[in-house]
Structure formats: C-alpha cells, structure tokens
Amino acid sequence: MLTLFRWLLRATVALIVLLVLAMVLTWYFATRSIPDYNATYRVQGIAGPVEIVRSTENVPHIFGSSDADVYFALGLAHAQDRLFQMTLLRRAAQGRLSEIYGRKAFPSDDLARRLELYRNAVASVEDQDQATLAALRAYAAGVNEWIGQVNAQALGRGAPEFFLRPQDISYWQPADSLAILKLLAAASSHSAAKEVLRARLSLAWPDRGTELLRGEGGPAALPDYAELFPNARFPAPESRARNDGHRSVEDFLRPGDGLGANGFAAMPDRTAAHGTLLANDPQAPLVAPSLYYLARMQLSSGGVIGATIPGMPVILSGRNPQLAWGLTPAPLDDADIAMEEIQPGSPDRYRAPTGWADLQSRREVIRVLDEPDRNITLRFSRNGPLVPGLDPGLADITPAGFVPALRWTGSSGDDTTMSALVGLMGATDANSAARIVEGVVAPAFAVTLADNRNIRQLTVGAAPERAANHPTGGALPVPGWQTEADWTDIVALDGSSQATDNGIVLATEEMGPVALRRGRLGWLLQDREIHSRDSFIAAQLDIVSPAARTLLPIVGAELWFTGEPAASGTPERQRQDALNLLAEWDGAMSEHLPEPLIYSAWMSALQDRLIRDELGPVADDIHDLHPGFIDAVFRNRDGAAAWCDIVQSAPTEDCTTIARQALDRAILTLSEKYGPDVTSWRWGDAHQVRQAHPVLGQIAGLRWVVNLTQSLSGGPFSVARTPLMGHGTAPFEATTGPGYRGVYDLADPDSSVFIISTGQSGHPLSRHYDDLADLWRRGEYIGMSLDPGLARAAATGITRLEPATN
C-alpha cells in the first residue's frame, strides 16, 4: 500500500510539473509575438530611415523621408499589432475562411466567391493612379517585411491565433487591400436584404404586409410579389430555428450588414472659436480587436491622422493640417435581385429576353478544415452572379424553377475608390477634396468635408439608373428576362454639395420619412446657435431615443395610470409602476435606468403581437423595431389599425387592448429574469456588448479573458446608435456600434479627439488590447497631435527602420 501511495504521489507531482511546464511554454510562445516597440530593424524596401513613434495609447506616428517609406512603415505597424485580423479580413474577401474555421464558414466563403470580391479586386489594381499603386505596393512590402521578421526571429508566428489556426501566412499583395475595401462595400449595402424582406412580407399578407416597412424607403405603392411571377409556385415560408442571439465572429464583416454612421459639420460663424468643426462615427460589428486602428502618417503633403482599417493604407476618417473629413454610407439603392427562370431539364440555361440562353460558369474549390475539399460551380446570367445564399430568407421568395441573380454596383473590375481615398488624404481644401472623391465607386459615401473656412457635404459613388416603367422601382426582386427591369446605366454621382442648413450639414445612412435619428441630430445641431468641440461631442454621444418619444404618447394614450395603486406585488401594481416610470421619462436610453428596458421590451412584444398572426413564420425573422409601422397602426393611417385584430381569436381586439397585453407580457418576461421590482431593473443589465475575439473567444476558459463585455447606454434610434440583436437569449444585446469616434476642431487642430472601441493591439496579452475600451464605453476620447515634437516628447516606444545594405 505504501509503494502504491509513493507511485501515486510521484505521478501527481509529475503531472503538476508537466502542467506548469506547459503553461510556461504556452506563455513564452504567446508573448513572443508581442512586438518590441523600441527595436531597430534593418529592412529591405525603404530608401531612408523611418521612425514609428508610439504614443501612450500605442498610436503609431510615422516619420520617413518619402511617402513610400511612410506607407511601408504603416504596413509594418498594422502587421505588428493586427496581423491575424488582416489575414482574417483577406480570407473573408477571398472566400477562404473555411480553411481555418471548418464547415461553419462555408456559406460565407461560397457567397464571397459568387460575388467575386477578390477577383474584382485583382482586376481593379491597374485602374489605380500611380500614387495609389505606389502606396499599395509600399504598404504590402511593409506587411511582408514584418512577416519576414516574424519568421527570421521566431516571433511566435506573429500572433497567438496562428498556433491554433496553423495555416501558412501568405505574403501581402496590393489586391489584398482592394479586396478588404470590396468586403467593406458589400457589408455596407443593405438593398438586397430589404428587397427580400419586402417580398416575404408581400407573400405573407399581400394586402398589407409591406406596411411593416412604412416610411423606410422604396416606392409608396408596390405590386404584389406573387403577381410578378404568376405561373410560379412559391414554397411555404420557413420557420428557422433561432440561435442564442450571438452572431458568428469568423465572418463579422458580412455582405448585407448595412453599416451606418453619422457625419456632421459646422461653419466658422456657428462655432465659438470661429473655426470649422466636424464629427464622424463610422459603425461596424463590435468585435475584439476593433475593426478600426488609429494612426498618424507624415506624408509629403503634410501630416494626416485618424482611423484606418488594418489591411488598407488610408485614413478613412480624420484630418490633415488644412482639412478634416468623415465618411457615412450613403442611403443608396445600389443592388437589385433578378429571379432567373432555369430551363426545365437544362440547369445551365436560363430564360433571357430573346429566349433560352447559356449561363456562364466557372468551377472553384473551397478547402474545408478537417473535411474533403468542396467543389462549387459559379454561374452568371446577364444580370450578374447567381447567389442563392445571399440572404437567409431568399429561399422563401424564390419560385420553383428559379434562381436569384444579383446586380450590384460593387461588382466592378475597374473600381477607383482606393485612389480617391488615398488622394483625399493630401487634399488641402474642401473644393479640391470634393473633386478627388468623385472617383469613389463602392461603397457609395456621403462625404463630409471641412477646411479652415468652409464645409461641404456630397454624395459620391456609382448609382444605378432605372427606367421610369421599372416594375418595382428596385424595391422588389424582378423577373430576370424583363428588359424594363434592367438598369439603363450605372453613373457616377455628380458629387454636388448638400445645401447647408444655417451653417450646419449632417448625414446619416437613414432614408425615408421615418429618419428618426437624423431628425434628432438635426434638432441637436440647430438648437444651439454657437457650437464648440464639446457640444459636438455631446451630440455624438446623445442617447435620447426619438422613437420612444414618438411612440409612447400614442401607444400608452389610454393606459396612463391615474387611479388608486393596486396591491403591492400584483401584476397590476407592476404595470402601474412601469407606466408611472415611463410617463416621467425623457427618452434617454441610460444604462442606469429601468425605463429604457421597459420601453424596449414593451415595443418588442407589441410589434410581435401585431404581426404574429398575419405574417406567421416570417415574424420569427423580424428582429428590428419598425417605429413608423407602430405609429401608423395606432394612428390608424390608411386603415392600419387592422393589424391590432388577432384573426385567430373570436373577439375583435382594439389597439389599446393589444398594447396592454403586450406590456403585461413584457413585464412578465422581465420579472422572470430580473426580479419583480420594476424600479430595480437596469437597461445596462440587458443592453450589453460582447466584443468577441474571432478565435480565442470561442474557447471555454479563455473567452472570459479575451472577450470584452460591457454595458452600454443608447439604442437603435439614438444618435449614439447601438442596434439590438432582437432575438434569442440576449434580445437587447448590442451587435454593432460606433467602433470609431472622431471630432475635429480646425480652430485648434491639436484639440481634436479620437477613440476606438477596444485597444490598438490585437494581442490579448498586450496591455493595449483593451486599454481604450473603458474610455469608449464612458464616452471619453484621447487626443492625437500632428506636432512631431509633442509626439516624440510623449513617446513610450520608438521603432526605427533602417535601409538594409547589400
């Protein structure tokens, strides 16, 4: 027995030693990939010495003797801090995520291949101007130099994720940067998703279904979708199984996301310091690390500073000494779905205007981790690529014997958007900048510009032209053989300026009469005669919901409590307490208040109760709140109160009854999760953001360390916009948001402020992985100066690059 005990003791000690040794080795190899920001490297590809001066927040300030050397250093800095993120974005555009994520990423790869994102990027390289080609090549050389340094010095493969996703790191090419821009363009467009939703609503309730999208763009009158395909058979709408509400992070920048932003500016006579002001907050899926990365470059045209996306050598939103700029996705219908009829018995032929025609086709191979390779056949009609996987609801509206094709302005092999963005960084005034950005193709942008004296706002990009007799005006899928549904042309928007409204311009991606956030922002900007940097910050961080202010007075018109309080602890008392809180609420979606949670749960339950019986399974996929619809129902516009009657029930319900039932249901659901005391509930307990790491965040034990979970104020209709998941176990979780915020003050340029949602580094063991996250959540910013002396004085590390000699 004593011998057995001794052997067990030895085995236990050995296991402990092995475990400690494994942890030490893991820590050692993981930390090897944290770059030394005080190192000196002798590198090929630069003409003279370059310095990368790192600020306290790890923002690189890059100084070199030529623009090419500066772009080289930006590529190296991006690769130092975000190499895995860059390769992930490149894989997403190439359709190669399945190689590291397995079968769950296959649908994303399949769609990226069919959209030809990377193929069109490669074709567009030679269409860039010479300055942009030089920038792309120098940037790629800088990325590749760091990959070479990682290999030569055994720097932990460049990032710890590469140990868990053991794939070779291909050298960077200029086309890779253009491919990421193509991916961003695809993610910015939501036109196809809107078409699919309208068609599903039309099929579910032909008479009134599309009223759900009242005031959200598109023609006022639409044909019934079934009338467009009179001889076709449509499948019954599917009831898709709901997930837990969390989006997949391996394809976080997905086609059809519909990204947003705010951009606004003020003329000198509307500012306290008599200089122009500009604010911009481009939104993106909230992941760790953030999509955005702060950087400063000293180019021959002057210093430029602001937000980049790793993988591209441009400041997307920022300023130089004379000019500030911000980009907002334009509310442009840039895509159409065409339903192609396949010839019976001949899957490679389709119905064209003049009869049956051959589909063009090409075969490609998608490699899948731990599975056999998958062969796919890409097919193309005269209308574009066939894309059956474009949208989850597309199968519901595709007639039997048909396949959807996509027309999209981003399907261009001569896209000069990158040249426009590179040129913008060197512009010296708003007028010259406006001419430069006319080269934008996709995504289409509302560009806000401010120089020392003027502000301008213009919409640029490629836009489709449709005939006056187009059968749906681009709002619904169309029969692919109908020539009247063709685009008559794709034209470059003329870039004409939007008129200033008393010295103020503003842009959001919202369109249609129910542009609530735009209305709120306009009120904030016009309510003050004189603005300052701080008032622009306050507007950017505004958390008041105009939707709540609009809906609560009409939805609760007959419910506000004025009598004796009910007994404590009863459902009636809970309802009374909730209504009392809402009656005094100003609409501020503060994370510390119960009212935003009560309101959000009530409106969600109300909308679901209004549409459930009419739309059936389609209601399962309606995750967003549609305030214009609820407003029309309770005001009975055009008989919209018909939605209040539940068809399956014997009595005829009125809207007040439905509103009360929805409130009771919402209170019951919240009580089960947060307890019975209505006043103790907090919006921040439900409205959280989980910024997940795309690899380590999926591993049990590590996810609690690398994923950043924070409570947030704001909501889907506040200026500080954070759209909600709307379903699953976390219906009020924030999914996207302003991953970057910037406010630029040209009266005192160095007082301009910036912030991103995580930290600069993508390495979870770096102190810069999440050091900006708390500031971002609290609505705070950091300063970044173009003064070289200030940058060097506050440096916490200087990386020196010296030309290698043969």
Description:
The chain is of the alpha+beta class and 806 residues long. It has a domain at 546-586 and 594-681. It has 24 helices and 30 strands. The strands form eight sheets. It has a ten-stranded mixed beta sheet. The radius of gyration is 28 Å and the shape is globular.
Question: Features of this protein?
Answer:
single chain, 806 residues, alpha+beta, 10-stranded mixed β-sheet, 6-stranded antiparallel β-sheet, 24 helices, 34% helix, globular
Summarize the structure.
34% of the residues lie in helices and 18% in strands.
Largest sheet: 10 strands, mixed
How many beta strands in the DSSP annotation? 30
What percent of residues are in strands? 15-25%
**Residues in helix, %:** 25-40%
Mean pLDDT: 91
Backbone structural class: alpha+beta
Give the strand order, joined by hyphens, for the main sheet: 1-30-2-3-7-8-9-10-18-19
Computed Rg: 28 Å
- List low-pLDDT spans: 24-29
Distance between the terminal alpha carbons, to the nearest Å? Answer: 71 Å
Number of helices: 24
Tertiary shape: globular
Question: How do the strands and helices of this protein lay out in sequence?
Answer:
Elements: H1 2-31, E1 40-43, E2 50-54, E3 60-63, H2 67-94, H3 98-101, H4 106-115, H5 117-124, H6 130-153, H7 161-164, H8 174-188, H9 191-204, H10 225-228, E4 262-266, E5 277-280, E6 284-285, E7 293-299, E8 302-308, E9 317-319, E10 323-329, E11 335-341, E12 349-352, E13 355-358, E14 360-366, E15 374-381, E16 384-385, H11 394-397, E17 402-408, H12 417-425, H13 430-436, E18 445-451, E19 455-460, E20 462-466, E21 478-479, E22 487-492, E23 504-508, H14 516-527, H15 533-540, H16 546-555, H17 571-583, H18 595-615, H19 627-635, H20 655-674, H21 683-686, E24 688-691, H22 703-706, E25 708-711, E26 736-737, E27 740-745, E28 753-756, H23 773-778, E29 782-783, H24 788-793, E30 797-803
Parallel strand pairs: 1-30, 3-7, 11-21
Antiparallel strand pairs: 2-3, 2-30, 4-5, 4-23, 5-27, 6-26, 7-8, 8-9, 9-10, 10-18, 11-17, 12-13, 14-15, 15-16, 18-19, 20-22, 24-25, 27-28, 28-29
Helix pairs in contact: 2-6, 2-8, 5-8, 6-12, 16-19, 17-20, 18-20
